[in-house]
Hints:
The protein is mainly alpha-helical. The chain is built from 4 helices and no strands. The two termini are about 20 Å apart.
Amino acid sequence: MSDSTESNDERPCLHCLIGDVIDDFYAEYGSLTGEKDAIDVDEIITALAKTVAELTYGSDAALRQRVLEDLMREISQFEAEFTNAPASDMRH
Length: 92
């Protein structure tokens, strides 16, 4: 993995790409309740959980546990950060 800022400047932000996909999905299909442009947090959590499970499938138990602990720590960290940030700072 390179620490080069040049390669990071060319590389899109994965967080922003995921956010855009979620926004586009709900803009096109609406939520399960039929509301247009409304997101379903439970549906998103399920999709993310399935994705993490797929990414760690076949890994040893220690690695899966570390991934889950890292995920929980990151969620807590960003939740606190976003709580104190203007909405415009939440996406890059």
